[in-house]
Amino acid sequence: MTGGVGFIGSHTVEALLEHGYAVRILDSLQLRVHPKGVPPWVSREAELILGDVSDRSALERALSDCRYVMHLAAYQDYLPDFSRFVHTNTESTALLFELIVSDSARYPVEKIVVASSQAVAGEGEYRCGRDETVFHPDPRPIEQLRRGDWDVRCPECGEPLEPLLINEATCNNPHTAYGVSKYATELLAFRLGARYGIRTAAMRYTYVQGPRNSFYNAYSGIARRFAMRIRAGLPPVCYEDGQQRRDYVNVADVARANVLALENSAADGMAYNVGGGRAVTVLEFARLMLKAAGSDMEPLVPGEFRLGDTRHTVSDISRMRTLGWEPTIPVEQNVRDYLEWLDTQSPTAEYLAEAERVMVESGVVQRVTSR
Ligand SMILES: NC(=O)c1ccc[n+]([C@@H]2O[C@H](COP(=O)([O-])OP(=O)(O)OC[C@H]3O[C@@H](n4cnc5c(N)ncnc54)[C@H](O)[C@@H]3O)[C@@H](O)[C@H]2O)c1
Asked: What is the pTM of this model?
């Protein structure tokens, strides 16, 4: 398991141990995610190798005698260090196959499950109400966002498009270097897996939530941003108009999905959306978190937006359901779990302030300048 010290990885390690696997973890303890070193949740039953997934000798050590690989280590951020996404996420996938193909006796790997992302879908799928034409839109132009016009518009008639659920077969249009790195990861896994007889599956997680989601990393997302502000006595800040639709899935459900995809041969060669199955707007999410925290504050909607954000992204999880999987934990519980966990940690508001400062200074977060 690469990235097994991380959020999804550590929960998946526990699920694998419960299923009777012997688990070896390769993790570099990326500083942005684990600034305090090895976190206490790393299972003693798993072997931990500290090293980088793009370092050949570390990967050789970690892979030796493994029958299965879960490749979850990744660089994730909003920062414009584009080459790092490809280097860490995609190149490491190629290296994984390179080693396995070079010496199948030493690396008898039968199946590889790679962590992908909803980011592969980009803006997803939309329909024009006028003539039912379906589009996979490009990112909204920045000039449009600066005017505070948030809708995804029809490239032909200019009217707002109606969002559809994201499905794996047609939604492959990543907009960010991270999304491209994940799509390339999938393609490498599927193509090389098919050519060399190694079974593969790719898991396109949506917004995964739950305990252990690093609050040091800006990429950790909405639960972290909102919860840390609320605990600092500040209202959550929603980007755009807060009406963006998203879906959120609990990490326990994700760990189960990972093990299912590993064990089920029906999953071979397939990409799976792993999502919450329910659309929730950002504003609704902010209110859910305020309610769970017992706060009577109201969310703020100051007209800020983040470059690279999509408007509406809700995944169709019917393909994952064919494996007998169903998300079982509602978003209300995710929010409670996260707050409870945050309260057992000692994050300080300075992490949040620092992450927000970097995003503003690097131009990732911007403000509406004209209406
Ligand atoms: N959390 C989400 O909502 C989400 C959504 C979509 C996809 N994903 C994907 O799921 C996977 C796991 O994400 P997570 O949320 O658990 O992230 P995380 O940051 O909590 O865990 C990632 C782990 O990988 C390790 N790592 C990073 N770079 C490494 C490198 N070069 N070599 C070895 N280890 C390295 C980190 O130290 C960390 O322990 C990633 O591939 C991510 O892209 C996550």
From this structure: 0.95
Cα–Cα distances in angstroms (integers) from residue 94 to residues 58, 127, 135, 304, in the given order: 15, 36, 32, 38
**Domain annotation for the chain: domains and CATH numbers:** 7-367 (3.40.50.720)
Contact 317, 203 (CB under 8 A): no
CA 64/CA 22 separation, integer angstroms: 13
Quote the CA–CA distance of 126 and 360 in Å, as a whole number. 30
Q: How far apart are CA 185 and CA 181, in angstroms?
A: 6
The rounded Å distance from CA 212 to ligand 1 centre is: 12
Q: Is the CB of 218 under 6 A from ligand 1?
A: no
Residue range 148-188, pLDDT digits in tens: 999 999 999 999 999 999 999 999 999 999 999 999 999 99
Query: Residue 85: CB within 6 Å of ligand 1?
Result: no
Please, how many CA atoms are within 13 Å of residue 355, restricted to the half-sphere of its CB?
Answer: 22
Instruction: Give 205-230 pLDDT, tens digit per residue.
Output: 999 999 998 877 666 588 988 998 89
Q: Is 143 exposed, middle or buried (0-12, 13-18, 19+ CB in 10 A)?
A: exposed
Amino acid in the structure at residue 231: R
Burial class (CB in 10 A: 0-12, 13-18, 19+), 310: buried
Angle between helices 92-102 and 177-196 (to 10 degrees): 10
Q: Residue 218: count other Cβ atoms within 10 Å of its Cβ.
A: 23
CB burial of 50-69 (b: ≥16 within 10 Å; e: otherwise) equals ebbbbeeebbbebbeebebb
